[in-house]
C-alpha cells in the first residue's frame, strides 16, 4: 500500500489509507515498562480509538503498532515554521499546526452530531446532557421558530414536557447559539416494539393529555406564536418547511394557493390539447373552465376559527418517552421540533401527524386530536381539503415553481487536506437570505428556443417555457426580457 502524506499538515490520519505496519511483539519488556504500562482510556478523549495509537512506555514502543509514516521526526526548522506561522488544519474548529504541536494531548469534547445546511448541533461531551445549536440569525430559519415556540409554551403551559433551552445572541447579531438539554429517554419509534400493551396505553394517555394541553391555546387569526406570518405546513409545502404563507384566515390562505392551483389545471389542458397550437378562443375556454373548478374547490374548503396551537410535524421520532419516574410508567419526557408550530384550523394537526404505530394498536387519531369526532367525520372533511392540496402540488411543487435564492451561485472550497481531498461548496441559499417561493416568475432566458439538443439541460423544457409565458400573461406578469423576441431565429455571431 503506497504512502500518502498530507502536504499541508505532514500527517497521515488513522482513518486514511496509510496504516502503520502491524508487528508481532517478540521482545521481552524491561521490568519498569511492564510495571508502568496501562491501557489507553478514551473517556477523556472521545472519538479516539486506542488501537490506532502507537504506545510507548519510558520511550520504548510496546504493542503491535509502528510509528506512522511521515509523522515524526520533525526538524527544528519545521517545528519553528509550524508554530511561528501556523496553518489551519480544520476550517470548522480552527485547529492549527501550532495547536497540534502544543496541544499536550487535548481532544475536543465538542463533536458535530447533526447538520442542516449552514446550521449544526454540537454534542457537548460524548452522550452528555447538553448540546449546542449553531445557526445564522435568520427570522425565517426553522430553528428560530422552534426556539420561539418552545419559549412561548413554557410560559403558557409550564408542565408540558420540553427540553431546556438557553439562547445567546442579540437581534442584530449574525449568529445565534442555543444551549439545549438532551431529551431524556428514547423516541417512540425506537422502543415502541419492545413495550407491552399496558405500557403503550400509558404512553397513549400521556400523549393525549399533552396534545389537549397545547390545543387549549387559541388565537382569532392564523399566525406564528410571535404574531408573525405563518408558513403553510400541509398544503403549500414543497420543501418541507412551508413555502406559502397562510395569511390571517382561510380566505387569505386560499388566495395565496390559487396561482399554483390554476397553473396545475391549465398545464394539464395545455399538454393534452397541444397548447402551443391552440387559438385564443380555445385557451380562453380553458381559463373559464379552470377558474370555475378552482372557485368550487375554494367554496368547499372548511372554514372557521378560533385557530388552535398546532405542532405541525408530530411523529414517532420527535416524541421521547421513559419509565424513569416514581410511578415506573412510560410517560412522555420531551416533545421536540416545533419548527412548523403556529395557530391553524382545528383539523390540521391530525393530517400533519404521522403516528401509525400508536393509532394502529390503541385507537384512531381523533382520540388524541379531536375527541368527539369520528373517523368518518375527518375523512369527509379531508375530501374537501385534498383536492386543494393535490391541485396546488401539480402547479406549485418545486419542479414547476421558482425558489430564491435558487443555489445558482456556488463557491467551491479547496480540498480539506491532501490525504483526504474532500471538497464541498458554499451556496447562495446558505447566506442568510430570506427564502421565496414563486408560482409566477420570469422563465425567459437568452438561450436559443430552437436548440433542442440542449433542452434537457434547462430546468423548464421548451414546451413548459411556452406554457409559463402564457400563464404569466394571464396574471399580467411582464418578463424582464419582454423586449426580446424569443420566438425569432437566433442571431448568428460572426
From TrEMBL:
Instruction: Supply the Gene3D superfamilies for this chain.
Output: 3.90.1200.10
The Aminoglycoside phosphotransferase domain, residue ranges: 151-351
User: What domain of life does the UniProt record list for this protein's source?
Assistant: Eukaryota
Give any Pfam family that matches: APH
**Region ranges (Disordered):** 1-21
Output this protein's name: Aminoglycoside phosphotransferase domain-containing protein
Organism of derivation: Phialocephala subalpina
Q: What is the lineage of its organism?
A: Eukaryota, Fungi, Dikarya, Ascomycota, Pezizomycotina
Amino acid at each position: 500500500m503506497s504512502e500518502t502524506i498530507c502536504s499541508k499538515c505532514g500527517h497521515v490520519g488513522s482513518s486514511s489509507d496509510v496504516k502503520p505496519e502491524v508487528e508481532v511483539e517478540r521482545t521481552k519488556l524491561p521490568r519498569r515498562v511492564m510495571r508502568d504500562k496501562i491501557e489507553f482510556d478514551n473517556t477523556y478523549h472521545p472519538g479516539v480509538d486506542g488501537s490506532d495509537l502507537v504506545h510507548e512506555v519510558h520511550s520504548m514502543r510496546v504493542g503491535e503498532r509502528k510509528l506512522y509514516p511521515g509523522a515524526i521526526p520533525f526538524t527544528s526548522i519545521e517545528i519553528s515554521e509550524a508554530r511561528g506561522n501556523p496553518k489551519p488544519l480544520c476550517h470548522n474548529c480552527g485547529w492549527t499546526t501550532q495547536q497540534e504541536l502544543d496541544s499536550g494531548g487535548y481532544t475536543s469534547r465538542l463533536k458535530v452530531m447533526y447538520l442542516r445546511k449552514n446550521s449544526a448541533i454540537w454534542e457537548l461531551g460524548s452522550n452528555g446532557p447538553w448540546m449546542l445549536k449553531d445557526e445564522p440569525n435568520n427570522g425565517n430559519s426553522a430553528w428560530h421558530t422552534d426556539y420561539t415556540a418552545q419559549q412561548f409554551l413554557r410560559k403558557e403551559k409550564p408542565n408540558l414536557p420540553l427540553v431546556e433551552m438557553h439562547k445567546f445572541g442579540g437581534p442584530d447579531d449574525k449568529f445565534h447559539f442555543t444551549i439545549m438539554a438532551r431529551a431524556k429517554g428514547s423516541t417512540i419509534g425506537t422502543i415502541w416494539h419492545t413495550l407491552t400493551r399496558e405500557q403503550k396505553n400509558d404512553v397513549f394517555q400521556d400523549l393525549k393529555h399533552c396534545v389537549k394541553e397545547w390545543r387549549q391555546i387559541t388565537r382569532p387569526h392564523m399566525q406564528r406564536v410571535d404574531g408573525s406570518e405563518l408558513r403553510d405546513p400541509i398544503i403549500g409545502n414543497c420543501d418541507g418547511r412551508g413555502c406559502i404563507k397562510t395569511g390571517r384566515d382561510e380566505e387569505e390562505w386560499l388566495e395565496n394557493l390559487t396561482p399554483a392551483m390554476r397553473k396545475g389545471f391549465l398545464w394539464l389542458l395545455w399538454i393534452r390539447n397541444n397548447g402551443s397550437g391552440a387559438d385564443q378562443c380555445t385557451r380562453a375556454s380553458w381559463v373559464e373552465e379552470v377558474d370555475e373548478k378552482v372557485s368550487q374547490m375554494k367554496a368547499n374548503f372548511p372554514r372557521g376559527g378560533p385557530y388552535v396551537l398546532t405542532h405541525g410535524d408530530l411523529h414517532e421520532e420527535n416524541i421521547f418517552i421513559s419509565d424513569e419516574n416514581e410511578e415506573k410508567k412510560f410517560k412522555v419526557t420531551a416533545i421536540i421540533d416545533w419548527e412548523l408550530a403556529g395557530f391553524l384550523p382545528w383539523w390540521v394537526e391530525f393530517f400533519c401527524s404521522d403516528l401509525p404505530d400508536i393509532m394502529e394498536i390503541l385507537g384512531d387519531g381523533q382520540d388524541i386530536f379531536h375527541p368527539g369526532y369520528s373517523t368518518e367525520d375527518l375523512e369527509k372533511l379531508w375530501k374537501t381539503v385534498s383536492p386543494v392540496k393535490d391541485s396546488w402540488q401539480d402547479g406549485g411543487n418545486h419542479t414547476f415553481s421558482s425558489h430564491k435564492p435558487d443555489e445558482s451561485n456556488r463557491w467551491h472550497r479547496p480540498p480539506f487536506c491532501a490525504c483526504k481531498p474532500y471538497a464541498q461548496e458554499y451556496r447562495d441559499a446558505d447566506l442568510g437570505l430570506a427564502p421565496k417561493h414563486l408560482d409566477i416568475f420570469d422563465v425567459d432566458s437568452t438561450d436559443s428556443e430552437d436548440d433542442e439538443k440542449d433542452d434537457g439541460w434547462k430546468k423548464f423544457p421548451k414546451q413548459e417555457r411556452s406554457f409559463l409565458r402564457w400563464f404569466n400573461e394571464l396574471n399580467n406578469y411582464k418578463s424582464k426580457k419582454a423586449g426580446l423576441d424569443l420566438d425569432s431565429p437566433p442571431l448568428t455571431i460572426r
